Every structure is written in C-alpha cells, then in structure tokens.
Amino acid sequence: MFWVDGESQQTIDILDRSFQYGDGCFTTMLVQGGQIQHFCDHRHRVDECLQALRIPGLDWNIVSLWLDNVIQHNQNNVLHGTESLQNINKLHNEKSGIKLHISRGSGGRGYSPLNVLKPMVTISSFDYPSHYNDWSKYGVQLGICSQALGLSPLLAGHKHNNRLEQILMKGEMDDAGEVDGVVLDISGHVIETTMANLFWRIKDKIYTPQLSQSGVAGVMRKRVLMALDSTEQFVKIGDYHLDQLLQADEVFMTNSILGIAPITRIRNTHFNIGPVTRSLQGQLNS
Ligand SMILES: Cc1ncc(COP(=O)(O)O)c(C=O)c1O
C-alpha cells in the first residue's frame, strides 16, 4: 500500500517532478517492534538532501504522524483482530521496512522549480528480506562492477531519487550471477556496493571510502563510525583503490535494513568473518 500526504492512494499526478525528473529524495528505514530504528539520523539526512536540492523542508510533526499511522495499520494487519500471544510476540520481534519518499511536488516549467507549490510525501512499507538473516550470519559474496560511478560533487552523499547508476550496476551483477558488487568511481576509488556502504580492516586499522564525489552516506555507516569512535577505534576515511580493499583481514557492508553483514568473498578473493564485524553486529544489528 502507498500513502500520499497521509492518505491511502494508488496513483500520483503525472506532472509530479519526481516522476518527471527524479526531483526529490528518499530513505528506507528498518521498523522493529513498531519503532523506526535511527529515525533521527534518517530525518537529518532527508533534511540535508532537501536543503541541497532547495526543496522546502517538511513538517516533521505531520510526517511522523503519517509514519506512525502506516506502522499502526501494518500492526493491525498482523494482529487480524486476534490478540493471540503468538501474534503479540511476533509484533515485538517482527522486522519490516518503511520507505519515505519526497518529491518536490507537481509543476514548474521544464526543469525550473519556480511555482511548484509544495513537496509531496509518499510512504510505503515492505517485508523484511528474509535472506538478510543468512547474509548477516554467514556473509555475503560480492562481484566487482566494471561500470564506474561518475563524479557528482553536488549530489554526493545524498539519497536523491535518481538511482540510475545503481540500476545499471545491479543489472551487471545480476548478469554475472552475483547478489551485489563493489562499486568504484571513474577515478578507480572504491566507493560502496550497489546498495550498501563498505568498511574493511587491515591489521588494527579500519578503512571506509570518503563520499565527497559520489556514493550515498548511509545512516548505518554513520552509526558504525560513531560506535567505532566511542571505543577509540578510529576509522581512516579516504580514497582507496581496489588492491587495498582486497588485502583486508576482514570486510563488511552496512545499510539500514540489513544492518551490518560480513563479506566473505569479493570476486576471487576470500575473507574470514572478523572480530570487528561480529562486535559491531552485536552492538548495532537489531
Ligand atoms: C547506494 C547505496 N549506498 C549506501 C546505502 C546505505 O544507506 P543506509 O545505511 O542509509 O541504508 C544504500 C542504501 O540503500 C544505498 O542504496
């Protein structure tokens, strides 16, 4: 189901600028036990993206109400009117996803955003991908994308509504029979995967790519950086080439729905699941 500006709705205006141009941003959040995980961080990233795109800010009191209503609606569906103990336990543990999508709104002339009245907020929910449990426990095997990300300093880090590069690269990985792949930029720097951020450890140092030219600055990446910072395991954030990543003693990927998952292979190079990955999973995976 979809909710547009708080109302259940299946259609949108054909002049909507996200439909026409990808003019907006989105975030996907994990819901567990009826609560959105790391909501403040998602909200902050949406605010930053709206600001970068010069889209008017949201009234978060109203958006939070809309999100609560969607979660409540889903919980009522699980209960189906029978408040059996089994169903109530299910509610407490159940994970699902919720997507908050913002379009600048409808109208303007061509690309010009002048005279667009107000942003449109679409909320949808989805089931927790069941294979993520195995990924988290046993690890993920990745390919390497031969297509490279362009440099886009105006939009780097933001989760805006244009995801064409990720679609091309995911298609390449589908063809290669891989579930996901390491993504580099056109300068040959490692950036992320098609759907997650990357971290790796070599001896006692942890590395992650800087994202000033491309990539999405993940909410879970931020949480991992904070967790490592609090134990004084400082992360080196910089430009790294593939050969450096492939020398790692352990590698893991992060996103808000998956949490933290070990990477056990990148193309032909195998990695053991390491202590930093398991410790962060203990702290941050719901
Ligand atoms: C390309 C890309 N990079 C990184 C991430 C991780 O972001 P987050 O931790 O906010 O889910 C995502 C999430 O979907 C993504 O699509």
UniProtKB/TrEMBL annotation:
<dbReference type="InterPro" id="IPR036038">
    <property type="entry name" value="Aminotransferase-like"/>
</dbReference>
<keyword id="KW-0663">Pyridoxal phosphate</keyword>
<keyword id="KW-0289">Folate biosynthesis</keyword>
<dbReference type="InterPro" id="IPR001544">
    <property type="entry name" value="Aminotrans_IV"/>
</dbReference>
<dbReference type="InterPro" id="IPR043131">
    <property type="entry name" value="BCAT-like_N"/>
</dbReference>
<keyword id="KW-0456">Lyase</keyword>
<comment type="subunit">
    <text>Homodimer.</text>
</comment>
<protein>
    <recommendedName>
        <fullName>Aminodeoxychorismate lyase</fullName>
        <ecNumber>4.1.3.38</ecNumber>
    </recommendedName>
</protein>
<comment type="similarity">
    <text>Belongs to the class-IV pyridoxal-phosphate-dependent aminotransferase family.</text>
</comment>
<dbReference type="InterPro" id="IPR018300">
    <property type="entry name" value="Aminotrans_IV_CS"/>
</dbReference>
<dbReference type="Pfam" id="PF01063">
    <property type="entry name" value="Aminotran_4"/>
</dbReference>
<dbReference type="InterPro" id="IPR017824">
    <property type="entry name" value="Aminodeoxychorismate_lyase_IV"/>
</dbReference>
<dbReference type="InterPro" id="IPR050571">
    <property type="entry name" value="Class-IV_PLP-Dep_Aminotrnsfr"/>
</dbReference>
<dbReference type="InterPro" id="IPR043132">
    <property type="entry name" value="BCAT-like_C"/>
</dbReference>
<comment type="pathway">
    <text>Cofactor biosynthesis; tetrahydrofolate biosynthesis; 4-aminobenzoate from chorismate: step 2/2.</text>
</comment>
<dbReference type="GO" id="GO:0008696">
    <property type="term" value="F:4-amino-4-deoxychorismate lyase activity"/>
</dbReference>
